[in-house]
Amino acid sequence: QVYLVESGGGLVQPGGSLRLSCAASRSIFRFNTMGWYRQAPGKQRELVASITSGSITNYVDSVKGRFTISRDNAKSTIDLQMNSLQPEDTAVYYCNTFTPLSVYWGKGTLVTVSS
Questions:
Q1: Of the candidates 107, 113, 93, 102, which has an alpha carbon nearest to the alpha carbon of residue 32?
Q2: How far apart are CA 103 and CA 115, in angstroms?
Q3: Among 59, 65, 72, CA closest to 26
Q4: How many CB atoms lie within 10 A of CB 77?
Q5: Between β-strands 109-113 and 77-82, what pairing exists: parallel, antiparallel or unpaired?
Q6: How far apart are CA 1 and CA 8, in angstroms?
Q7: How confident is the model at residue 27 (pLDDT cuts 50, 70, 90)?
Q8: Is the pLDDT of residue 91 over 90?
Q9: Residue 37: band (very low, low, confident or very high) from pLDDT cuts 50, 70, 90
Q10: pLDDT of residue 2
């Protein structure tokens, strides 16, 4: 069974932190690049961060220095540590991976940054 399940979203004040987690089925995790995307109301979904099977990371400019993506290959999970959160980070965050044949998405977890 193939799955991606996100957790860890919630409401946080500006300047606060949250840690998102994504549990993936091993069949799609082991050798694949994993990513976090987000979609804010009225905006297109955008790639926030990605990590390859060899732990090479990539970030969108707006989160560099604030967000950190990591993976645990033994547990088939990826995390996104988000610090110094700002209202513009408010969005539904999705876990993603892909193979040559398919693209996989989780159902998303809502992050709201508001005072």
A1: 102
A2: 36
A3: 72
A4: 18
A5: unpaired
A6: 23
A7: confident
A8: yes
A9: very high
A10: 87
Give how far Cα 30 sits from Cα of 19, 52, 83, Å.
Answer: 22, 10, 27
Reference 100, options 39, 28, 11, 50; nearest CA is 28
18-24 and 103-105 beta bridge pairing: unpaired
Residue whose pair of structure tokens reads 């988000």 in the numeric block: 82
The answer to whether 30 and 73 have CB atoms below 8 angstroms apart is yes
Query: pLDDT at position 28, please?
Result: 84
Handedness of CA 29, 33, 36, 37 (dihedral sign): negative
How many angstroms separate the CA atoms of 102 and 107, rounded? 16
Q: Which DSSP helix (H) or strand (E) runs through 18?
A: strand 18-24
Average pLDDT over the chain, rounded to whole?
Answer: 95
